[in-house]
């Protein structure tokens, strides 16, 4: 979808060499690097990207919410971050942790929330207990933030 909307310079990271190989086979990425989010720094200089997305990885037992400052580090001032998480019962504790961390960064002036939108049919449920009200799907949330510009210091 990003490519279809004009985004042509796509870089990706994943902790799995197999997933990187699948991504490479699409021909959509200019750069793919092995990186375990939340345990090592992203392989990019500070303020490098106009937009950073993390879709399908922010969840219980996956990428810790402590990754947020690292995502901010590689985003240009005024740049955008699009993050997602699931709202299924087994992810509710993580979601609460994530939202607390998102809020703390907003309170500190690091970024501004532009959107937090629930998506009812995020993905197919793998069990009936995870299904949202018996729909066969679990819900999720899309968050979009804009990194705040660095304030200019007065000279003199």
From TrEMBL:
Occurrences of domain Methyltransferase type (ranges): 4-82
Molecular-function annotations in GO: S-adenosylmethionine-dependent methyltransferase activity
Record Pfam families: Methyltransf_11 (PF08241)
Protein name in UniProt: MET27 protein
């Amino acid at each position: 979808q990003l490519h279809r909307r004009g985004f042509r310079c796509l870089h990706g990271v994943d902790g799995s060499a197999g997933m990187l190989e699948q991504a490479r086979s699409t021909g959509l990425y200019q750069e793919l690097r092995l990186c375990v989010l939340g345990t090592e720094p992203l392989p990019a200089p500070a303020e490098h990207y106009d937009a950073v997305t993390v879709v399908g990885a922010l969840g219980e037992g996956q990428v810790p919410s402590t990754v947020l400052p690292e995502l901010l580090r590689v985003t240009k001032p005024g740049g955008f971050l699009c993050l997602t998480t699931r709202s299924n019962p087994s992810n509710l504790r993580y979601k609460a942790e994530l939202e607390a961390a998102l809020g703390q960064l907003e309170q500190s002036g690091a970024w501004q929330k532009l959107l937090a939108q629930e998506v009812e049919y995020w993905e197919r449920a793998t069990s009936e207990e995870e299904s949202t009200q018996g729909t066969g799907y679990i819900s999720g949330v899309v968050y979009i933030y804009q990194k705040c510009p660095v304030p200019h210091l007065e000279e003199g």
